[in-house]
């Protein structure tokens, strides 16, 4: 078997593969005596055996086991049912309802804030940033057709100073979220936990939204846009803290098989928040006083903030927070939380023991030392990241260690792809964009509601598909379609030269609505929350989400000037190209993580990026193209390979087997010694991963 890489960072094998059955009982008893003295040791031993042989007990639960029964743990009907539901049901565990509700409300609030910014842009004159709308919009009767064509297609003008100031005001919360909030999430999470950080963030958004609501209705000598700018900077810090810790809470509490579904609640309810926010913007716009309407739009996030605070008060903390190195390390607390999140006591005991062993093994490989339980506990209870120099050390390790560097690249590319596709900029500026077709604010808001509705409804199919289709494949399928729709929408503007104006806007809007059907929104936050090892999860997630928010801020800043500088069709055409660029980056550099436990992702990220992109370009891509040609000109044969990280391509006798990048590793505990020698690992096969990930 060929050697493809040296794996110096990742632990090898699943958490229990290297423990002999006869040694497992003693290890279980030692862990139980240290942390779970109230648990029957026989119950914990049963759970550990089930965790060590997941495929065997899956077959037993299904009634398809045909092997020997001697030495096997006997499962009662409820335990069998719980094990099968864990694998087959995308519905959340009963104990996960509060977590998913909290995640959903946090996401809803995020979307609500975005639409608040969007709707307020239509009232720019009320905050001291007027625009010359007669050269930007089209009168309802179409009397300024020639002027509209000149402004948007033939000779775009330069952006005005107020266009830039509007962009700065709207971009401020996203810049502060990216540059301050995401990084402040680390000390807040370390001190207060994932849930506690979300409480702080929700309180910040609530207070700042209430202050923003006061600005339009008060008299002040200071330009109102400047006051709004300052408050939005603080508001953005809360958004950044919440954006980091919310997906992490979802990923760390979810069942491994359906982790993507749990994290998807974030993006799904961001879309819902955007949709509901647009409806409220339209309702508030009916106020006779424009200043009152603007105040209501800016203050709308106060209500979901209060509801979120109430839910967080009863939401459980992430159990993995109590398994991090530091003074809060306490597996007993983690177990008490896991009991509330899982369907069966057997599964709860299995998960806490597997988490303990996975983290112990990860630490041993990272430090190249064997540790007995007492030494390991002493090490874990030692505070690690408490001062600035420790933060700098942790940040440096994101780039120095392959296990951290690979997911950093992948999650950052996914985060960038979400902004390159253009979906967020339409969420920020749909009102002003659709106002191109009419000077009537209400009509622009109706279009925005349609955009928000489709954005939400067509995120629903991703609830299951994100864990069955996969993250990488989802991006590779949706980005080309989005590019096509953007290009078509841009070209539809040219119809103004030959067709009547009333028809072309309808075509353009229809194409933009079709574009929203396949947006990649669920993926960036999923990868950011799940990809990093526990020791670097917060800082890795913070980096990836800060990339997402920073480029969202850049687009928000430059959008008014883009529209003014290269016209509406030119801007849409630019984003069509960006979708193609995003597809290329995803194809070459983003790995698949579906149906693999958080701890087992070491397998995936052990392959160097240079090996990965060369494999995709020189082995996998030719194989796909060959299969495509044969599917047209040759006889097709159904493929049975469903355990890969890419599109399923039908097999053909002349097509050959699917090229493999990974092959299963063999774990040898002797590789961990006192000498600090490097550990090597062969490539491994996704089929092997799928078995391991069931733990």
TrEMBL record:
**Annotated keywords:** Membrane, Transmembrane, Transmembrane helix, Transport
Listed transmembrane segments:
95-113, 164-186, 198-219, 225-244, 256-280, 292-315, 408-431, 443-463, 475-495, 507-527, 539-559, 571-590
**InterPro entries per the UniProt record, alphabetical:** MFS_dom (IPR020846), MFS_sugar_transport-like (IPR005828), MFS_trans_sf (IPR036259), Myo-inositol_Transporter (IPR050814), Sugar_transporter_CS (IPR005829)
Q: Where is the Major facilitator superfamily (MFS) profile domain?
A: 99-594
- Name a single GO cellular component: membrane
Q: Where is this region: Disordered?
A: 641-695
How is it placed in the membrane, per its record? Multi-pass membrane protein
Q: Which Pfam families match?
A: Sugar_tr
Q: Which GO terms describe its molecular function?
A: transmembrane transporter activity
Chief location: membrane
Give the compositionally biased regions (Acidic residues): 679-688
Localization in the cell: Membrane
UniProt superkingdom: Eukaryota
Family as reported in the entry's similarity comment? Belongs to the major facilitator superfamily. Sugar transporter (TC 2.A.1.1) family.
List, alphabetically, the PANTHER family matched.
MAJOR FACILITATOR SUPERFAMILY (MFS) PROFILE DOMAIN-CONTAINING PROTEIN, PROTON MYO-INOSITOL COTRANSPORTER
Protein name as it appears in the record: Major facilitator superfamily (MFS) profile domain-containing protein
Phylogenetic classification of the source organism: Eukaryota, Fungi, Dikarya, Ascomycota, Pezizomycotina
């Amino acid at each position: 078997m060929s050697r493809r890489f040296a794996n110096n960072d990742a632990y090898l094998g699943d958490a229990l593969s290297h423990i002999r059955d006869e040694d497992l009982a003693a290890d279980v008893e030692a862990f139980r005596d240290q942390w779970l003295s109230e648990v029957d040791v026989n119950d914990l031993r049963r759970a550990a055996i089930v965790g060590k042989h997941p495929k065997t007990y899956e077959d037993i639960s299904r009634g398809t086991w045909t092997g020997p029964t001697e030495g096997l743990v006997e499962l009662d009907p409820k335990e069998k049912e719980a094990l099968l539901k864990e694998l087959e049901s995308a519905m959340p565990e009963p104990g996960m309802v509060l977590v998913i509700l909290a995640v959903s409300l946090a996401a809803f609030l995020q979307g609500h804030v975005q639409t608040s910014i969007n709707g307020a842009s239509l009232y720019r004159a009320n905050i001291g940033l007027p625009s010359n709308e007669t050269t930007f919009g089209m009168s309802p009767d179409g009397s300024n057709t020639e002027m509209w064509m000149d402004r948007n297609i033939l000779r775009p003008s330069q952006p005005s100073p107020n266009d830039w100031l509007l962009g700065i005001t709207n971009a401020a919360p996203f810049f502060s979220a990216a540059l301050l909030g995401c990084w402040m999430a680390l000390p807040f999470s370390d001190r207060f936990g994932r849930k506690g950080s979300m409480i702080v963030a929700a309180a910040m958004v609530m207070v700042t939204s209430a202050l923003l609501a006061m600005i339009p209705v008060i008299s002040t000598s200071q330009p109102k846009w400047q006051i709004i700018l300052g408050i939005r900077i603080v508001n953005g810090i809360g958004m950044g803290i919440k954006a980091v810790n919310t997906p992490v809470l979802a990923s760390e509490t979810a069942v491994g098989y359906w982790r993507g579904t749990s994290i998807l609640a974030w993006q799904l309810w961001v879309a819902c928040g955007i949709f509901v926010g647009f409806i409220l913007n339209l309702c508030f716009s009916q106020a006779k006083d424009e200043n009152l309407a603007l105040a209501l739009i800016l203050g709308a996030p106060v209500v979901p903030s209060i509801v979120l605070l109430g839910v967080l008060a009863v939401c459980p903390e992430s159990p993995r927070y109590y398994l991090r190195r530091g003074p809060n390390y306490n597996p007993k607390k983690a177990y008490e939380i896991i009991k509330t999140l899982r369907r069966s006591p057997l599964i709860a005991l299995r998960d806490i023991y597997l988490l303990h062993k996975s983290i112990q093994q990860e630490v041993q490989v990272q430090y190249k030392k064997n540790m007995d339980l007492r030494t390991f506990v002493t090490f874990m209870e030692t505070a690690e990241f408490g001062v600035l120099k420790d933060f700098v050390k942790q940040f440096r390790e994101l780039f120095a260690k392959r296990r951290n560097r690979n997911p950093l690249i992948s999650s950052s590319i996914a985060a960038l792809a979400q902004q390159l596709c253009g979906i967020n900029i339409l969420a920020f500026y749909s009102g002003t964009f659709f106002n191109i077709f009419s000077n009537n604010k209400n009509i622009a808001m109706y279009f925005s509601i349609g955009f928000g509705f489709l954005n939400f409804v067509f995120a629903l199919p991703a609830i299951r598909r994100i864990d069955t289709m996969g993250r990488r494949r989802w991006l590779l399928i949706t980005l080309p379609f989005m590019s096509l729709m953007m290009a078509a929408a841009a070209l539809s503007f040219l119809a103004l030269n030959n067709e009547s104006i009333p028809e072309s806007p309808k075509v353009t809007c229809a194409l933009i609505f079709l574009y929203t059907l396949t947006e990649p929104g669920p993926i960036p936050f999923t990868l950011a929350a799940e990809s990093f090892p526990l020791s670097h999860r917060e800082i890795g997630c913070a980096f990836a989400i800060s990339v997402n928010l920073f480029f969202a801020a850049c687009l928000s800043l430059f959008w008014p000037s883009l529209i003014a500088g290269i016209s509406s069709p030119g801007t849409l055409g630019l984003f069509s190209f960006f979708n193609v660029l995003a597809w290329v980056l995803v194809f070459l550099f983003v790995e698949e993580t579906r149906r693999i436990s958080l701890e087992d992702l070491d397998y995936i990220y052990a392959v160097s990026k240079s090996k990965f992109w060369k494999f995709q370009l020189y082995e996998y891509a030719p194989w796909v193209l060959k299969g495509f040609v044969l599917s047209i000109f040759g006889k097709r044969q159904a493929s049975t390979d469903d355990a890969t990280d890419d599109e399923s391509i039908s097999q053909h006798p002349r097509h050959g087997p699917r090229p493999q990048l990974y092959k299963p590793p063999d774990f040898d505990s002797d590789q961990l010694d006192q000498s600090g020698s490097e550990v090597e690992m062969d490539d491994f096969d996704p089929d092997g991963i799928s078995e391991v990930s069931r733990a």
